[in-house]
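Dear colleagues,

As part of the handover before I leave the project, I'm documenting each prediction I ran so the next person doesn't have to rerun anything. This entry is a single chain, and its sequence is reproduced below.
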Amino acid sequence: MNRNKVYILEDRGLLYISGDETKEFLQNIITNNIENVSNDRSCFSALLTPQGKYLFDFIIIKHKSGYLLDCEKKIIDDLSIKLNLYKLRSKVEILNLSNEFVVASLSKEKFLELESSKDEEGFTVKFREDPIFLDPRSKELGARLVINLEKLYLSLKKLGLEISDIKEYYNHSYDLGIPQIDTKNLQDKIFGIECNFEELNAIDFRKGCYVGQENTARIKLKNKLNKRLFAIKVLDGELNSQEITLENKNIGKLLINSENPFALLKLENKKFNFDLNLKCGDANIKALKPSWI
């Protein structure tokens, strides 16, 4: 990422969760450990089905007396509804602040120029009282600033940043093998651990129970992870099928069919051969090997 570029992620939404029982409420349902989230540490986490299937992923940031959840705006209403179902009579309030706050992404290099910053995933500092942190999934995604819209442009000016096309940011995320767009297509179709959540720091295997914990732990402890979500590159042709084949044998399924496609692919002996030429409908494709594997 260019040191002086910034990307305004207008397709991200923000929920604010607060109340006396907020920490306990989140700890009982999310895959990561809310105890590790503080004013100087943010985390990546997910909400799974009771069977351990993917539902939502989000970044959690400490904010005042509660927490901000940074998630894809397309699914924010669905996430709010699900959280309210789990809330029951808990002393928890859930607010959608997407019309008031925005998320911006900037380079790791710019973040490390800030006072008290550290080169650690999830490390969080304040800039003009707003949280700015290295992406907890991967430092290579740069940093994220969560800020009130009224303050956005003055803060960007003070940081010496130039607004750039968000396609650059999402292409970079795709190259890193981290899906952020059309994640609804993954819902209830793929286990959370198959989304590479362990490698992307979304699962704490040492915390207590959470929704979907039993199957997630079983797949991990019994070494039964035999599929993974990978970015795929179209070499030629069109993606007009979901089935992915190798020598006429089904080895996977296209789940996100967009400008930056992702597919669930079978592993062979817990590994995947990224040199293979695969077929998906009329397209010849390859899986992209992420740096974290």
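The chain is about 20% helix and 35% strand. The chain has two domains: 5-175, 226-293.

All the best with the project,
I.
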